[in-house]
Fold these 2 entries.
Entry 1:
Amino acid sequence: MTQTALNTEAASASGKQVLLDFALQLADDEFLVGHTLCELFDYSGPSLESIVAILSLAQDELGHAAVFYELAHSLGGPTEDWAIYHRPPEDFQSANIAHNRVLDWPMTVVRMALYEHADAARLDALNPTTHEKLGDLVYRVAKEERFHRQHWEAWFVRLAHLPDSRQNVVRALAEYWQQAIDVLDVPDAAELEAELGLDAGALSPPALVDRFLSGVRPLFDRADVQLPAGNPSTWLPGAHSGRRGAHDAAFNEVIGEVRAVHERYPEGRW
Amino acid sequence: MRTIRTSKAPAETLTPDGVREALRSVEDPELPVSIVDLGIVHEVQVTPDRVQVVLMPTFVGCPALDVIRDRVRERLEEIAGGRTIELEYKFRPAWGPERIAGTARKSLRQTGVSLPMLDDPGGPDTDAAWTRVDCPYCGSTNVVMDSPFGPTLCRASYYCQDCKHPFERMKRL
């Protein structure tokens, strides 16, 4: 085997690993978002319709997680059940915003509106991929995520225009702004672009953040709220995103809840 | 164990149309219509040794997907004449309500689900037909959307301001 062939093989092996990590990012994000939304059932949203909507939406996120776990498994990753119930917590690739919920309605609305826009930014960037399996999933999932955005945006605008809740929206924005941008922390963008047949730079953090900003600007206009203070050129995913095992303190608590029933009844089926 | 082959003759003459006809007896667990009329049976292929069916999920997160797959498999086992059954969900092209048959549209409307009808002026799947949301109970268009998520993923919640009835509307994907 020539040296060039060896190099190509090595490159594609590490490309596969990056793609696997990325598939787990997508799966873990959607899983934890779905799981934490389910908790709101108990807490209750402002109306019966909003609770029904949250659960329906949570179910969809869990469905997206399932197909992304399936993709990860086909790339040599763990099965869905193993990933959720047995994987060491530090192997979760999710961003902190995915599990970082507060049982408060304006906080939830802002967290979800920002998360959905960050999610849309990466799905849009993935759209032209030549990777058939991921491409089919992204194509389908993006169609559904449109409704999620529509739902959270409607609440975002509604709350921002109510005198009593406007300040809560602004406060929540400050809390979740960086965490939403952290969703755009992808593993080795250049390697991933090559593996997925995307243009060079398509998944670079500044390109993804630009997409995110052009998505949220019209929403902020409608809600008549300002982008958070700060220099936009510093709005980049940080090392504290939670990806690659560096989660915040709340993470282990949420994973403990996720696993509690399974640990108690390991043979249980539902 | 279920008897897979009841007689040889029907198995030999099995055609894709025959498979579709057989699958009419499989209802969607959440809607009062057959999965064939709902438009989620995408492709059917029959060869001497296998039956291949490709289904399309209405929504990726739909909890009925496994139930539908199991029911389809059971039904196929009855008619496959010993052929291998291959069953899968595909995501592209995506299912959309434009695939719903006319009879199914009528039964959906009768159960309180609004969606464009085949005889709508200008056709059932135009922007105009989807923008004009009407109450399935009184026909009024004086309606408001409560939420884009209803009791199932494929339906949104609406409220009729004339007859004061909440109702559901199929989503256009």
Entry 2:
Amino acid sequence: MSNISSFLGGRGVSIQPTTRAFLRSGVFTALRDGVVRLTAVGAGASGGWAKSTMGINSGVNAGATGGSGPGYVPGVIFQVRRGDKWVVTLGAPGAGASGAAYFGDGNNGGDTTIVGPGIDVTVQGGRGGRAGQAPYQSLLQVPGVPGGIVLGCYGIQGGASGDISIEAAESGGVSGGGAVNLYDLEAQHIRSGSVYVDLGASGGASPGGGSADIDAGGARVSGGGGSGGPSVGTQGGPGTSSALEFLNAPGDLFRVLSSGLPGSTSVDGLSAGPGAGAASGGVVAGRATGTRLLSGSSSAFSGSGGAFNSSTSGSLSAASGASAFGGSSGGALFGRLVTSTTVSSGDGGPALVIIEEF
Amino acid sequence: MARYEILDGETVINTIIADATFVEAHHPGAYRLVPEPEPAPFTWGQAGPEYQWIEVGSFYDRFGPAKIPVLASADATVQALVRDTQVRKYIDLARPDVQQFIQYLGTVVPEVTPEVQATVLDPKTVDDERFEKGLPQPIEEP
């Protein structure tokens, strides 16, 4: 990525950029000939939702993945002339998804576009999570969704959501939401965990790392990724160990804002209330105890955890938490067909565009 | 901030966050406003435990015509339980000992019929009764 000083040609020059932040659509007008720096985070998506009809040796199982992370423009330089007008259109976050019967995909985040003289950029929103069913004791496969990309300039693809792939499934599983890839991590290091065993729920991913897979022999939930690394088992990922010393671009500030917040630890038990953290953990409620089940909301740029409730009595609901800027929500699943159940994924996080004019 | 669907004919090609001026200027005639979803109804199944905390006076009012026979009961256990409830800030209808108290009343005060017991222990409270005021009123499950 180009360094702004190379464009300005001087050393020790302190320049206060004119900065505009767009939280809704608008028009940017260049004040002078020169360069601008574009930073953009696409809109997050919502996770899929499902209800299985699991019974004793009957029914079907179901799975739902989290939404994926959106595209990211990490401070790209463009030349402008005074009076140039860029139309900045902010994609809407994917609204949380729910329904009566029996499964459905999440909603994509809308595309964010910046169009004008010398620029035609599209920042895709995250892709809505998928959902599906399979016969009892059959292979259940619901592939995760890839992250949104950037068209028209340098950009970074969002993190994917984890797969659901369970041999001889009897119930199902859910994966967490994807994250904005602020650190340009390799794809396998920023996706939310995949689920390979029944009753599994993975945590959301964070810009600093993904969430752990749910494998045979391990816990049925994984923590959310932290800004300093991925989650390990049920533990949330670590926060950033030291403050960043240099802030050269809004993207650096984003990293600071998402630092020091480990993913919340998952709860494998009765319930989990809204939690704080870079990304929230997955949650599972056991079969015997009914309760409202909500994976925690995630902070900026991170995904929320998947939520899986297989209770047979009680308040009977499962919901994944909402996400902040650019984050996507996890999948939500109710594991038994019970009337009056409520299953819903949280809303994706809103998009953000920052234009600095030097 | 409103949510608009951008249309190509009848096909939705994007969903954006904008105000009416922006969307009309840049997508004239090719958009529609996305209605804000109705908030999910708040049902009794979602109500927290504080909904079953009712004031002491309201608790006894739930007995209706059976209230005075209860308060005037000569039964020593009833008298002790009444005194115990009257020093409380509120009565938690979900507590097992409260439910046992009501069942005991049914055995010694004839006016406390099964119907009265059900009324007293009904977990669906109203604001005037509740110890915590101003809580949103839940609705029946749809």
